[in-house]
């Protein structure tokens, strides 16, 4: 007969299961507890290093034979220690387009992350559902119809983007903002805007149409250091607002009804998020023309490499910057001395990605 163990009057407590995976850590910042995904942080740091490396490599590349520069001379030119000719090539020619590519890639990727989270659809990108074409329409009207030039095109692109967003928002408002409804209506609006943009180009003079058509492909040739300012200001103003709304935005990953059940004022939050995302697209379009597919690809790539439950904003921005800097380097050098519009390169990359995405979706639906 075995002897029973003496009891202490206290039942043993089973160890509680770990709720969060080991990659998740929490940091207390004042009264707020911030969740940090260590894997996403590591991936983002690697991407940031890649952006710096590709940017430096791009600065060394010339568009004509013999114009390549070693990295040491590029650094000297940035510090103002080179000859006037080299300083002009690096500081006035290559550096503005690389910096614009970085900030524009971040802005487009953040905009795409917001739209894809709200719509819960990988095709819910601003260049698929009409916002980019709306900004293009505003810019074309300013340049071709009102003759306001590039400065007017900037304002026109912002007004066109916001106007398109307002129209799509009102058309989807019947039963609340539903993701698939927004995508379908947005694709229809996008098709009509493309037709209208073609009408504007056909009915303008040959010279104006050529300039507007080149701008409509996303071209970095004429960029200067001042063109960085509007995109940088937009990021400085809008990113803190996006960070403030990000916890509520995460609730939309479970659907609008679930977000409402968690106490989120879905109508107000959606309106703010759409406004931020449209402004990010519009300001990039105003500066560099419509650049396709960065907003579509970057959030999905970020979601896959971080392997998280949603679309990570910071990692998406890093992927967008890396993609656009690389696309610009390819556009400058692939057919040198002829320089391709950067939009042609991003469209080619995006087309391959879109076909792959549709094939994967069809296989998933069939299984």
TrEMBL record:
Keyword annotations for this protein, in alphabetical order, are: Cell membrane, Membrane, Transmembrane, Transmembrane helix, Transport
The cross-references to InterPro entries, in alphabetical order and at most eight, read: ABC_BtuC-like, ABC_transptr_permease_BtuC
Q: Name one GO molecular function term.
A: transmembrane transporter activity
Its subcellular locations are:
Cell membrane
**Could you provide one GO biological process annotation from this protein's UniProt record?**
siderophore-iron import into cell
Per the annotation, which location comes first and is thus the protein's main one?
membrane
Task: State which residue ranges cross the membrane.
Answer: 38-59, 98-118, 138-171, 183-202, 228-246, 271-298, 310-330, 342-360
The membrane-topology field of this record reads: Multi-pass membrane protein
Question: What are the annotated GO cellular component locations?
Answer: plasma membrane
Homology family: Belongs to the binding-protein-dependent transport system permease family. FecCD subfamily.
Q: Would you tell me the protein name for this molecule?
A: Iron complex transport system permease protein
